[in-house]
Task: inverse folding
């Protein structure tokens, strides 16, 4: 038993390398890893118990509070890791050359990870997107739920969670429906039959826009004459709303239901593509070809 204890003592005390005047042993590395874990734990507790409650008492927007809390958390981790090296006795200046060589290797192997991390910091600093924003990127349409170091979590209207790398928000075009002013203009196309009383139709469509509880009164709903179609007079109902952030499909569907009901109640026809076939009376002469001669054998 004593031999095993002596062996373990020699193992953990075996010098791996020298940092300045300090011997770095296996015990030093284990202690450093333990301190790193303690730093991460302290950062999470500090952010939840102190940082976020303090920011919550300020006049900052929730998205700004989240971004500031994240950045402070990263600074706490960096400072804690630096103190951990000092506690173990590792001189960081003496590891500069080794860190540079390792950094080059990690730079190639972890290029995407580092890129996403830096882009995450840019997102938190510049705030092109924030928690709760309704965005569209690369065909993904949903609400931003979480912004982490490597990726951003987006939840679609179908309650599907999609993880988007942070670099995509810097290198791709992002449509943010909630950035700044949340008002969005909806254009609802409406086609009616030729011969419809236009002024009456315009009044009915404006009523549909005003009667919807989520439609804004300012700017007021308007109707545009879009043009003459093959089978219909084409109009466009324009309504402003803030519902793009929450339920854009429901809002558009409600307007379509209301328009159909309003037109049906007022006996206004919604046309469909059709063709008129005109038959002329007269004599139609068929010319009969003479029979072909029989083939010779």
Result:
């Amino acid at each position: 038993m004593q031999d095993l204890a002596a062996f373990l003592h020699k193992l953990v005390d075996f010098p791996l390398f020298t940092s300045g005047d300090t011997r770095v042993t296996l015990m030093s590395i284990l202690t450093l890893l333990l301190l790193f874990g303690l730093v991460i734990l302290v950062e999470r507790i500090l952010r939840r118990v102190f940082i976020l409650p303090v920011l919550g008492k300020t006049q900052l927007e929730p998205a700004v509070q989240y971004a500031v809390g994240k950045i402070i958390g990263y600074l706490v981790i960096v400072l804690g890791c630096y103190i951990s090296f000092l506690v173990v006795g590792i001189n960081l200046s003496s590891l500069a050359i080794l860190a540079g060589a390792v950094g080059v290797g990690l730079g190639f192997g972890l290029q995407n990870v580092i890129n996403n991390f830096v882009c995450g910091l840019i997102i938190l600093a510049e705030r092109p997107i924030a928690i709760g924003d309704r965005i569209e990127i690369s065909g993904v349409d949903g609400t931003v739920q979480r912004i982490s170091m490597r990726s951003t979590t987006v939840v679609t209207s179908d309650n599907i969670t999609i993880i988007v790398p942070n670099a995509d928000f810097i290198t791709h075009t992002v449509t943010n429906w909630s950035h700044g002013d949340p008002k969005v203009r909806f254009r609802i196309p409406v086609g009616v039959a030729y011969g419809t009383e236009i002024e009456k139709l315009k009044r009915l469509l404006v009523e549909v826009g005003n009667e919807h509880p989520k439609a804004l009164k300012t700017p007021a709903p308007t109707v545009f004459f879009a043009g003459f179609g093959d089978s219909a007079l084409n109009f466009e109902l324009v309504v402003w709303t803030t519902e793009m952030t929450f339920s854009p499909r429901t809002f558009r569907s409600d307007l379509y239901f209301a328009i159909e009901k309003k037109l049906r109640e007022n006996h206004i026809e919604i046309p469909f593509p059709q063709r008129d076939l005109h038959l002329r009376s007269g004599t139609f002469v068929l010319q009969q070809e003479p029979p072909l001669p029989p083939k010779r054998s």
